[in-house]
Amino acid sequence: MTSSKPIIFYDIASNQPLRTFAPNPWKTRYALNFKGLSYQTKWIDMPDIASVREKLGVAANRTLPDGTPYHTLPAMQDPSTEKVIGDSFEIALYLDRTYTDSPRLVHPGTTGLTAAFNAQVDGLFTKYVALADQMPHDARVAEKVNDMIAKRFGATAYEDFKLSGEAREKMFVQFENALGEFVKAYYHVGGTTDYFWSETGTAVAQAQNRGREESGPYLEGDELMYADLIVGAWLAMLEASMKPEDWQRVRTWQDGFWARLHDALAPLREIK
Ligand SMILES: N[C@@H](CCC(=O)N[C@@H](CS)C(=O)NCC(=O)O)C(=O)O
């Protein structure tokens, strides 16, 4: 089927110019652009996400540590089928099921694997999200957003989450090491956690990458699939939400591997 009317994609509003910055909406934008589908973005201020989703009739899909549910984006409404979906992974599966003439995001027989990979990648990057401390929230809502986040985690103020000095530097080193472990998935080497991206292990990592430099930067080399967009979404979040010099630092890690992946996805970052 081809979509007759544009799909409505609900994304979180940034400051001007409006652009995607949060990782899960990035997954959906990448998916829509990859499939070449016609869509338009509805930008939603973060404090309004719950009321918009309630109006659309989708349930809250995340829970706080105390069990309280809360609403998130992305969400999607497809006027051609009247379907409304409020989760990035479910949106990807729906798009594959419905728009079979466009390239497939999740290849047959890999749905469970991709779901597990999605959770794994979210967990990995979320651990270091404090380093993305320049989220481009609009000034009109920034204070409300900061209060919302602080309240969720029992802090008195958003400032309590901010890292500085040695603690921040330590987190950078840990993040680089964690990505050094993760890059093994791309090098197609063993998954055992032996931390080869330690100071003494760097040469091992480089040796193991030999032979993969010439192929594309995706998990399967030249062939892009949804799993690559999941990682790409987190990299796009880092670019949008880190200090430029911090993002430049990430770009140098693992011999520039993440920069190569992010740059390869540039044609799919169009905002419609
Ligand atoms: N499982 C959901 C998670 C979506 C999610 O966590 N979205 C975040 C942005 S990346 C959000 O909307 N957060 C709003 C908030 O924290 O209030 C999905 O994949 O769509």
TrEMBL record:
Signal peptide: none annotated. Residues 12-103 form the GST N-terminal domain. SUPFAM superfamilies: GST C-terminal domain-like, Thioredoxin-like. This is GST N-terminal domain-containing protein. It comes from Knufia fluminis.
